[in-house]
Write the structure tokens for this entry.
Amino acid sequence: MVMMTGSLAVRGTVVWLTPQQGGRVSGPPEHDYDYDYTATAYLPPRTADDGQAGLALRRFVPGAWRTPAEGILVPPHGNRAQQVVPGCLVVITEGVRPVGFLTVEEVEVLAPDGTPIPPPAPAVAAPTVAPLTVAPSAATVSDQVPSSMEPPYRHSTAAARWTSQHASDDSPSEPAGV
């Protein structure tokens, strides 16, 4: 799961709307090897009014109504984070008019210089420990279990959310347009 607080490289399938569906009058964009197709986009439940991001697409089949493509999503400055995961739908717009849909199949986070940031290493599962049996003696469980094997203290998820830091916390709040 990735939160779009910076640029993301995405791969997926684009379906362009026909002119009768409100899409581009000229049909799917023709690929120009010197330039990428650029447009705006948003991820539902956001709308074109409150969640537009920049989008650049490349490596798509010119003139095809449905085609694999690669792209870069760039959120506007000060925009709240948006969740981008494989399977989510990105609405491609020209202005505020939807012209296509990109179904995301892969997501990579990009550094400010445009290089991919490798995902964090997966957490290694703790080895399973056989259950301890207590002999009917005066010994207690704490005497038999080494302190290194005690389960760690767990705090509530809500507390973790309140105390965690996120890059979007650093962006200045926008003044109200009163």
